[in-house]
UniProtKB/TrEMBL annotation:
Localization: Cell outer membrane
InterPro entries: SusD-like_N, SusD_RagB_dom, TPR-like_helical_dom_sf
The name this protein goes by in its record: SusD family protein
PROSITE patterns to which the protein is assigned, alphabetical: PROKAR_LIPOPROTEIN
Keywords: Cell outer membrane, Membrane, Signal
Source organism per UniProt: Pontibacter chinhatensis
Domain SusD-like N-terminal: 69-225
Domain of life assignment: Bacteria
Domain RagB/SusD span(s) in chain numbering: 304-497
Entries under SUPFAM superfamilies matching the protein: TPR-like
GO cellular component: cell outer membrane
Family the entry assigns: Belongs to the SusD family.
Length: 497
């Protein structure tokens, strides 16, 4: 379905379906039991509208497109073929001004923002703790979506202090108000204001399918880290870590992290909840990473990432990667002349499936994408401490994550055991890569730290006749074009170079 920007009205109100299995405190009628007046004029209706806003970020136009736009340009993935799907242009940095995944993401994002603005304008603060919680959730969602938008369409804050163009800030329901792009700095300030407001309104009783005080604090830690306000990044990471709400999953359970329902996983801070009725099957995130009776299985773990994770065989995170072997007619694994198993390939590219978006509750293509988790808070703190010169504290947090991954002894870092690294920051960034691979963070980690994305490994991202692809942080395609259709609808929008 195509939506025009000027028609971004009542979408969340009309889509307030309850998230099955995760209603928590929200005892609401289904959307078809409410009139528009009931929805916008009663607390119960605004609770229902809030569920509709969560559904917007669950929509494939948001969640799936966000993942493709952010993860596919990273050095953790290798695509095994060409495709007419616009995901290919995200993967190989050949962006278009009219590209389905940016068009649809942009529109769905602003629909979600409109929906949050409806609730924020209608719901008066201070009526009850329950309604303040609902209001806070909408402030969080509005902040989260603006943050995702500005990082996709605006250059990293740390590159120029946020001076470059960001995205439109939408804080009202006036459909005739079509603002120009605010600067990245202005958008970040808006996001921080909303998150601080959200944290002040919310408590900590909701499950990880919903926003809570700690969810807002966790995102604040990430926002401040991206701004290189390192003291604040540590402050908010500490609040989450010390809240007592979250614990790292035990080492033995780590390979199964993403198979558990997010509400039962004490490490997950916020996930975009998907139940069986939400399973996108062939259109799911996991479909591109795995073929197990269903799925395309075309995007693999990159050689670059595999070389990093394979440094220590005991690292449990290696189990998120599944090598695929050729089979004999009897189903046994085929071996080569050297006696070793023969890896299967597609178009000459060896198959290494990724399982982080598969097998939730045993369903091959079902997953609830994790947006925030406790491991990131330790790594946020580690990066911030590394940049402040607190090397010992940074390595302590890195080692905490490595121990959880099953590493010990000489596999842990210290001032006398840097394992070839010359910088603690480099240690932290590689640990972030190891831990958060395929969770839509690597691209940001590279470019906001003014690094080059090095993709000198097999895959269809390589230019014809070349074995290298290196994208410097100054490259114009670090960010995507503003969708051309949106500029037609709102001529105040300035296009990216």
């Amino acid at each position: 379905m195509k939506f025009k920007f000027r028609n971004y009205i009542y979408p969340a109100i009309l889509c307030a379906a309850v998230l099955t299995g995760c209603s928590d405190d929200l005892d609401v009628q289904p959307y078809d039991g409410l009139t528009i007046d009931q929805t916008t004029g009663t607390p119960e209706g605004l609770k229902a509208a809030t569920i509709g806003n969560y559904n917007y970020i669950k929509d494939p136009y948001y969640t799936r497109n966000f993942h493709m736009l952010v993860e596919y340009p990273s050095d953790n993935v290798a695509l095994s073929g060409t495709t007419t799907d616009p995901l290919f242009y995200a993967y190989n940095y050949q962006h278009l001004t009219s590209m389905g995944i940016t068009d649809n993401f942009f529109r769905k994002a602003y629909q979600a923002i409109y929906g949050t603005n409806v609730v924020i304008e209608k719901l008066q603060e201070g009526q009850s703790a329950e309604l303040d919680q609902v209001l806070g959730e909408n402030y969080f969602l509005r902040a989260m979506v603006h943050f995702d938008l500005v990082n996709i369409f605006g250059r990293p804050y740390a590159q120029d202090g946020g001076a470059s163009p960001g995205v439109m800030i939408r804080n009202n329901t006036d459909i005739n108000d079509l603002p120009p792009r605010s600067s990245v700095k202005e958008v970040y300030e808006f996001v921080i204001g909303d998150l601080e407001k959200a944290a002040s309104l919310m408590g900590g009783s909701k499950s990880s399918s919903f926003a809570s005080k700690e969810v807002a604090q966790a995102l604040l830690s990430r926002v401040y880290l991206y701004m290189e306000n390192n003291e604040k990044a540590i402050e908010y990471a500490d609040l989450v870590i010390n809240s007592g709400r979250y614990t790292l999953l035990p080492t033995a359970d780590l390979p199964n992290y993403f198979t558990y329902a997010n509400e039962t996983n004490r490490e997950t801070i916020f996930a975009i909840k998907h139940t069986l009725q939400d399973d996108q099957t062939w259109g799911s995130l996991g479909s591109m990473y795995l073929n197990d009776g269903m799925g395309y299985g075309e995007m693999y773990a990159s050689e670059s990432y595999r070389n990093l994770i394979d440094k220590f065989e005991e690292d449990k995170r290696r189990e998120f990667i599944v090598p695929v072997y050729e089979k004999n007619a009897d189903g046994s694994i085929k071996t080569g002349a050297d006696g070793k198993p023969v890896l299967a390939a597609r178009n000459g590219y060896q198959k290494y499936y990724i399982t982080k978006y598969s097998y939730q509750e045993g369903v091959v293509t079902l997953s609830s994408p994790v947006y925030l988790r406790l491991a990131e808070m330790y790594l946020n703190r580690a990066e911030a401490n590394a940049k402040l010169g607190n090397d010992e504290a940074a390595l302590e947090d890195v080692n905490l994550i490595r121990r959880r991954a099953g590493l010990s002894g000489d596999a842990l870092f210290s001032a006398s055991n840097m394992m070839g690294y010359t910088s603690v920051l480099d240690v932290v960034l590689d640990e972030r890569r190891l831990e958060l691979a395929w969770e839509a963070q690597r691209k940001y980690d590279v470019f906001r730290n003014k690094r080059t994305m090095v993709r000198n490994y097999p895959g269809t991202h390589l230019p014809s006749g070349s074995n290298t692809q290196e994208i410097p942080y100054t490259h114009p395609r670090v960010v995507y074009f503003i969708p051309e259709q949106e500029i037609i609808l709102n001529p105040k929008l300035e296009q990216n170079p």
